[in-house]
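User: quick one, sequence for these tokens?
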């Protein structure tokens, strides 16, 4: 049996090293990690003093402060905790199309973002909205995401989808806002969707509904199509920004290095710490 290709090659993973998720606000996690938190804990960065109370760790007493003030004061430090990251990956029927295939490109993009998070000891959860966790198919239904989103604690969420299904996306985006999620909406399109490569008469079939329609490719119909696609992308971007999310459109043919090193850093989802 042929071995499935690796989601990410070793060289690609190596080039992801050093990247980190960029959060706009502090978070509170449940496990130790490398993310700055609002809670005080044990790290190398001093945060504040507070008075000693029975039961506190006496090793944190600042004896220099005691010599000056005749009071027991504890030194508090910035806690470093994990950032909960949720990835929502669209593997509906419309994603199983294009050259390169959109579903495969979306999997690779999700894998790259997850690798960056896990390397920083962040917690990662993947939710696939399709017929199954490994197959591609079925209709896009963003509304089904509202329940798992609502169970999340504040953190970061990234939704990866083509955004071309007839179902409205706003229920899911509104749920992300209510759950105090920051993050991004990433629209994945195939190059052939930007510039259709067919001409003449054709019978087009909807990948999710099975509906068929006769079409004739002319300069007028192609221009109308490009206008409709641009309008759809603009609507997605505006909806994401209303909910406090970043937005980027990527092509399935873009190397994952280019997307992570340039596109996702440009919108502020990933960063490469200085030094």
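Assistant:
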């Amino acid at each position: 049996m042929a071995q499935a290709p690796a989601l990410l090659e070793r060289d690609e993973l190596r080039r992801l090293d050093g990247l980190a998720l960029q959060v706009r606000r502090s978070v509170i996690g449940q496990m130790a990690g490398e993310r700055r938190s609002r809670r005080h804990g044990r790290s190398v960065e001093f945060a504040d003093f507070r008075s000693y109370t029975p039961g506190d760790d006496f090793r944190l007493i600042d004896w220099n402060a005691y010599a000056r003030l005749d009071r027991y004061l504890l030194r508090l430090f910035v806690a470093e905790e994990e950032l909960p990251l949720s990835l929502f990956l669209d593997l509906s029927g419309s994603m199983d199309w294009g050259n390169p295939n959109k579903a495969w490109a979306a999997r690779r993009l999700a894998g790259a973002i997850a690798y960056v998070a896990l390397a920083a000891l962040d917690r990662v959860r993947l939710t696939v909205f399709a017929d199954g966790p490994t197959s591609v198919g079925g209709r896009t239904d963003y509304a089904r995401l509202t329940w798992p989103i609502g169970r999340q604690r504040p953190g970061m969420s990234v939704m990866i989808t083509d955004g071309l299904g007839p179902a409205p996306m706003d229920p899911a985006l509104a749920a992300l806002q209510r759950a105090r999620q920051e993050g991004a909406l990433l629209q994945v399109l195939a190059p052939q969707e930007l510039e259709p490569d067919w001409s003449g008469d054709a019978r087009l079939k909807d990948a999710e509904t099975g509906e068929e329609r006769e079409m004739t490719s002319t300069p007028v119909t192609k221009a109308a199509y490009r206008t409709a696609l641009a309008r759809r992308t603009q609507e997605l971007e505006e909806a994401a920004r209303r909910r406090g999310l970043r937005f980027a459109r990527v092509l399935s043919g873009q190397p994952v290095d280019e997307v992570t090193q340039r596109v996702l850093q440009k919108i502020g989802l990933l960063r490469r710490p200085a030094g």
